[in-house]
Amino acid sequence: MALTQMQQIQSLGEALAWLEREIGWGVTPSALQHLCGRIGELYACVLTNGQMAMEPQQRGYDVVASTGERVSVKTTTQRLPAHVQFNERTFADVDRVMVFRINTDEMQVETVFDASVEAARAAMSGGNGKKFSLSVRSAATSNGAAPSSREVRNASFDAHRIAEFDNGSIRVWTMGEPVEPVKPVLRKIAASLGVETRNSRGNEFNTRQLGTHVLDHLSERWGHIPYVPEPFSPSNFIG
Question: What's the pTM?
Answer without folding.
Answer: 0.73
